[in-house]
Amino acid sequence: MPELPEVETVRRGLQAVLEGARIARVEARRPDLRFPFPEKFSERLTGKTITALGRRAKYLTMYLAGGPVLICHLGMSGSFRIEMSDDSEMPDNSEMLGAFYHERSKNAVHDHVVFHVVSPKGVRSRVTFNDPRRFGFMLFSEGAPDTHPMLAGLGVEPTGNALDGGLLASLLKGRKSPLKAALLDQRLIAGLGNIYVSEALWRASLSPLRESGTIAKPGKKARQQSDALAEAIRAVIADAIAAGGSSLRDYVQTDGSLGYFQHSFAVYDREGEPCSKHGCGGHIERVVQSGRSTFYCRTCQM
C-alpha cells in the first residue's frame, strides 16, 4: 500500500492540473470501489471548481468551491493518470505517461473514475483513477476533512518540526508494544508505514523489537534516543518525498513513472546484505512482526 511519500508525490503531480480547474464532467464507471460511491457522486462534482488539493496521512483531499471535500485513498493498487485533450503541454510535475520502473496497469477495464476538467486558461484534460484491486475509495466530507470518521482519529503528521523528541516520548510513554508496532499506530503518528519505519529505526540505531516505552523513560539516554528517532522519521520521509516515493511494484506517479527512493533503502528488502552503516560489520535480517516483514541490523540497532 502506498505510504505517505507516495501519496504526497501523487498530490503534487495532480496539483498542477487540478487546482483552479473546473470539473466539467465525471464518469463513475462502476457503483463502488472498496465502498459504494456517495449518493449523486458525479452530479455533486460536476461544475465545481477545485480550490486546493491536500493530503492528510495517506489520504488525498480535494477541496471544492462550496463543498463538499472529496477524500481519496489509493488502496493497494490505485493510481491517477493525466491525459490532455489537446496539444497543450502538461504543467511541471505532471508530464504525459513516461517509462515505468515496474509497469502499472494500463488496462482500461480498471479505469473506474474519469474526471474531465478545464483549467482557468481553457485547457481540457482527463484525470483517470485506475484501480485493478478496487481497494481504493472516494468519499465526501461535508465539513472539515479532519472531522470525517476516516481521518478524525489520526495522529500527528511525521513532517515538519511538530514531531520532535519530546512529543514522540509523550506518545510512547508507558507503552510495552514493540517500537515498530507503536510507530505504525496511525492514532499516534499518521502516515508512517512498514517501509519508512524500518528505514527510520535503522537511521536512529534502534531495534524494531525493543519495547517502545524504553525511549520515553527519564534520563539523558532515552531523551537522546527519542530525539534521534524523531529526527530520523522526519528525514526519511523528507528524503523519500524529494526522491518521488519508493519504487514498489504497485505504486506509480501521476506521470506514469515510479519514484526511486527504493534505490536508497538501507534495510528494507535487503535481507542478508551487509549493513551499510560505517563500522557496523553486521548484516540485514528479516523477521515477521504482526504479519509484516521487518528488516533491521541487530548489530547496530539496539
Automatic annotation (TrEMBL):
It catalyses: 2'-deoxyribonucleotide-(2'-deoxyribose 5'-phosphate)-2'-deoxyribonucleotide-DNA = a 3'-end 2'-deoxyribonucleotide-(2,3-dehydro-2,3-deoxyribose 5'-phosphate)-DNA + a 5'-end 5'-phospho-2'-deoxyribonucleoside-DNA + H(+); Hydrolysis of DNA containing ring-opened 7-methylguanine residues, releasing 2,6-diamino-4-hydroxy-5-(N-methyl)formamidopyrimidine. SUPFAM superfamilies: Glucocorticoid receptor-like (DNA-binding domain) (SSF57716), N-terminal domain of MutM-like DNA repair proteins (SSF81624), S13-like H2TH domain (SSF46946). Binds 1 zinc ion per subunit. Residues 266-302 form the FPG-type domain. Its cofactor is Zn(2+). Residues 2-136 form the Formamidopyrimidine-DNA glycosylase catalytic domain. It comes from the Bacteria. Transmembrane segments: none annotated. One of its GO terms (biological process) is base-excision repair. GO terms for molecular function: 8-oxo-7,8-dihydroguanine DNA N-glycosylase activity; class I DNA-(apurinic or apyrimidinic site) endonuclease activity; damaged DNA binding; zinc ion binding. Keywords: DNA damage, DNA repair, DNA-binding, Glycosidase, Hydrolase, Lyase, Metal-binding, Multifunctional enzyme, Zinc, Zinc-finger. InterPro entries: DNA_glyclase_Znf_dom_DNA_BS, FPG_cat, FPG_Glyclase, FPG_N, H2TH_FPG, Ribosomal_uS13-like_H2TH, Znf_DNA_glyclase/AP_lyase, Znf_FPG/IleRS. The keyword Chloroplast does not apply. Its EC number is 3.2.2.23, 4.2.99.18. DNA binds at H110, R133, R175. HAMAP family: Fapy_DNA_glycosyl. Involved in base excision repair of DNA damaged by oxidation or by mutagenic agents. Acts as DNA glycosylase that recognizes and removes damaged bases. Has a preference for oxidized purines, such as 7,8-dihydro-8-oxoguanine (8-oxoG). Has AP (apurinic/apyrimidinic) lyase activity and introduces nicks in the DNA strand. Cleaves the DNA backbone by beta-delta elimination to generate a single-strand break at the site of the removed base with both 3'- and 5'-phosphates. Belongs to the FPG family. Monomer. NCBIfam families: fpg (TIGR00577), PRK01103.1 (NF002211). This is Formamidopyrimidine-DNA glycosylase. It comes from Mesorhizobium mediterraneum.
